[in-house]
Prior knowledge:
The protein is an alpha+beta fold.
Amino acid sequence: MDRIIYTAAGGAARVLEQQAVISNNMANVGTTGFREQMAMYRSVPLVSQVGLPTRVATVATTPGSNFGQGVMAETGHALDLAVTGEGWFSVQTPQGEAYTRAGELAVNQQGLLVTQQGLPVLSTDGAPVEIPDRGSVTFSGDGQITALGAGDRPSDIQLLGQLKLVNPPAATMVRGDDGLFRTAGGEAAQADPQVRMISGFVEKSNVNPAEAMVGMIANARRFEMQMKVIQDASTNAERANSILSSNG
């Protein structure tokens, strides 16, 4: 009986862990640039000091993310940006350089171009981008930033710099607890001139709500099955004890 309970309890625990990942994906269906997190099971050998490693357990793992592109939504806002195809925007965090697909940008009180979380967006020289006061900003497809100050003539347009757009291999990208991505080694990625972007658009989350909902329902059923096994094992044990007591 003990083996049945441990097996079923382990399976129920793995289902709950996977359910947490799916629930997080569902909660971020409306998050700009969000990348769906993947959840899978893998076997782990049980090793002890006695006997041979003939048994295995399972653990839930999050081996990576779905890097497929989300739907592009037109906003018309000059500071809304979206990477077309593969690539990332570079931002500065307290832990160093990180990468995101969320291009809903703004200008903070210090005149810096920042994300909705207040993180400075980086240029190709690794510095935050400064936006002129009341300036009209435009972005080119390769990330170059130009601005025209209030009252300036078209000939007075100035080049502010170029956004750092990167495209490291997807296998080297690791999601942090803050939802941003970093390279596995923690080093800064090099700017990639092949990455392209568009202004006036944002990229929606690439989570499929229907698939996520089906996954949540399937996991709920698996959890109920595991609990039923535990209940049946408990009932069988009680009956066995009752028979042994009556025979005694």
